[in-house]
Amino acid sequence: MEYSDIGTVASWLTEQGLKGATESQLLNGFCETCRSLGLPLDRGLALMDTLHPVHEGRAFRWDSQEEVEGEFAYGPTGGEGNSLASWQTSAFYYLWAGTENEVRRRLGFGDPTDFAMLEKMQTDGHTDFIAMVHRFAKEGTIGEMDCFFSHFTTRHAEGFSDHHLMILRKLVPVLALAIKCIALGRIARTIAEVYLGEDAARQVLEGKISRGKSERISAVLWFSDLVNYTKISDSAPPEEILPMLNAYSDLVITAVHEAGGNVLKLIGDGVLAIFKADAPSDACSAALKAERLLHERLVTLNDERAFEERPITDVYIGLHIGDVFYGNIGSQERLDFTVIGPAVNEVSRIASLCRSVDFNVLMSSDFAAAVPQEERDALACIGRYALRGVQRPQQLYTLDTAGMIR
Asked: Quick one: 153 and 84 in the same domain?
């Protein structure tokens, strides 16, 4: 590979980064292009921490001879067990903990195999190994994303030459910048989805970020909260409250998402979600599916928590269908992407009424009327009720089989 080829590879990386190629595509293309130009690469790996509620980071791999998992997320390395041990014996940890920016082991020429995986690489015929770290300045750091790690190996009989290493040192920072740019976009999507919900996040990232920018939609509205949460909070040990809230919220949110809904707000122990579909009956079916999923899993969770002698509870659910405004509400400095309108107030009041009538699922007459005929037989009318702050009394329904508080 000639010195003049550096510009070719750098231009390719820049072009692909601007196009939005994935991180694994960037690494694969980088390694394959360099190899085609005469740089004897046989294996490449790049990884970078991220900002994610579950994963600590993502890694990307390429191999010239075998199929490998090209992309994978890794969990926290700061705990215990195999993940921590693997991290602390790696060349990347050596670089992260020290001040050097690269470390090399000439595996075919007597250097020690003192880092994780080096012995296997040597057995597989790799003759040279170099690992690099490119650190970010404080202004370029987001969450745990504070540097870019990479390593490269060769099976070439003479290993990497000084010329090869010079080329890698020139090009890997360009690769790091391209991958970081794509990763930042991924982080933006993750943060938006985690805090706004998938559908609202998509709309915000598509540019609907101006205050007052909203659309009128018809949607099924779900409002749920925990039974006796205030009483439990007052009596349970403080260290039990947050784990309990997380455990039950996880069931609600997962059930809504699996059924095709979108969670818009977490309000203490309350959850506001919407179900959208071309046909109102499909949206109602999705909401009922979410209710079934939730209460099936509640049985298991409550059995486990009761066995552990931890506080248990149930979930009140109010369901309604109506027109709402869906979009940005707030000030120029702080916006919320949510739904507003009388229907939102109604579904909240319907859920609140569960406490008074001893049913854990209540539905408005509008919702019941929109439920598909084949599912309507499972609904039972419980009478007409006045809802606080709502002008007209509502005919309310529950589920025949799962309506009563357990």
From this structure: yes
Q: Is 404 inside a domain boundary?
A: no
Give the angle 196-201-203 at the CA atoms, nearest 5°. Answer: 130
Whole-number Cα distances in Å, 141 to 262, 281, 342: 31, 47, 43
Paired strand residues for 325: 216, 340
- Check which CATH number belongs to the domain holding 374 and give it: 3.30.70.1230
Q: What type of residue sits at position 199?
A: D
Please name the residues in contact with 202: beta carbons below 8 A apart, sequence gap of 6 or more: none
Do residues 168 and 314 share a domain?
A: no
Beta bridge partners of 62: 44
Interatomic CA distance for residues 201 and 121, integer angstroms: 43
Same domain for 266 and 191: no
309-355 tens-digit pLDDT: 999 999 999 999 999 999 888 888 888 888 999 999 999 999 999 98
Place of tokens 């790996």: 45
pTM: 0.81
What CA–CA distance (Å, rounded) separates 292 from 138?
48
Coarse DSSP helix, strand, coil percentages of the chain, rounded to the nearest 5 percent? 45, 25, 30
Question: Does residue 308 share a domain with residue 162?
Answer: no
Q: What is the DSSP string of 105-138?
A: E-GGGT----STTHHHHHHTT--EEEEEEEEPPG
What does the block give as tokens for 377? Answer: 């037989």
* Per-residue pLDDT reduced to its tens digit, 77-120: 665 556 678 888 999 999 999 999 999 999 999 999 999 999 99
- To the nearest 10°, report the CA torsion of 356, 357, 363, 366: -90
Closest to 394 in 3D by CA, of 324, 355, 347: 347
Same domain, 179 and 213: no
Evaluate whether 384 touches 393 at the Cβ level (below 8 Å).
yes
With vertex at residue 84, the alpha carbon angle to CA 80 and CA 88, rounded to the nearest 5 degrees, is 140
Phi, then psi, of 54 in degrees rounded to 5:
-120, -50
Range of the domain at 314: 206-399
Interatomic CA distance for residues 195 and 198, integer angstroms? 9
